[in-house]
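Message: Study each token:
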Amino acid sequence: MSRQAIGVTVVLSILAALIVARSLIGDGSGRVYTRTVTTEMVEVRLPASDPAAVDEEQARQGQVVTEEAWVPVDSEEAKKYASEGAATISWTSRKNVPYSQVRASPDDEGISFSWSQTLGIWLAALLTLAIFSFLYKDNPIYKTAESLVVGVSAAYWMVVGFWDIIIPNLIGRLAPAFVEANFTPGLTDLEPQWRYLIPAIFGVLLLMRLAPKGQWLSLWTLAFIVGTTAALRMVAYIEGDFITQINATIEPLYQVVRNADGTTDGYATLWASIRQLILVVGVLSCLTYFFFSLEHKGAVGKVARVGIWFLMITFGAAFGMTVMGRITLLAARFEFLFDDWLWIIDPNKQREVASVISMITG
């Protein structure tokens, strides 16, 4: 074993020992407590928010139009509009309880330790550390975590796509009565829309990609997807970026900013005009840089060099925003590790006593 591997092993062993000790000393760590909460709803008839959509004739006659709604039994709407014998429904759920309440009420029988959520936090923390292990080098632990992320993500989005897209947008249009009876109660349009057979056929053709023969049939669907996506994105880009850029560029260089009383705000007008001037200079210089019909010498070369500066500033700002986004994700993971898992920090004031002090004092 190399010296570097020995050093990493020692560091990981010390870290594991600290984690185990942290989970056993003081208040512990990575624990989730829940309380059973009962929710009761009652059916009432409330004044319609859009009377014309509910009953256009009554709304035209000036009558009060009501609609059915479910509200909590202890709400003001229930006290005002609920009638005797109104239908009610109730269910129970588990709600997370801050550890400060657990400390304050240790004998509260309504609060219980949640094994499932606690195991979830520990599993998420260990997988996070497994991903961080790539900072040392590629290793089997990292590959296992990476495979889990890819597999679970693919399975999750497949299920989401099935229930959010295929069921309501395809099967719900071809067999609405079946979907209304088995999956989505409350559908109003129960007439089959047979034109949705076309996307269904395209979907089946796309699955031919997995068949041993006839894979070329999937190219029809892929070509349709690529073509329509490119066209839609091009139109959106032209309307959202290209035309907007042209409109902003042809604005007058002198931008007048007026106050609420109609007077001119000199300070705001100055900076608005400077901003417009920089915008015009940047656009023209960047266009000059990409104009290759003239050699970049003399005045053209100087303007093109200004365009390079604008491009570098733009690329740098975009890269900086990307890095800041990644740092935000990293900070969120560290906050999860130190707050939800190890209880070393407490930004949400859920545990009252700092866990570091509790760990030291026992």
Notes: The mean pLDDT is 85. DSSP finds 13 helices and four strands in the chain.
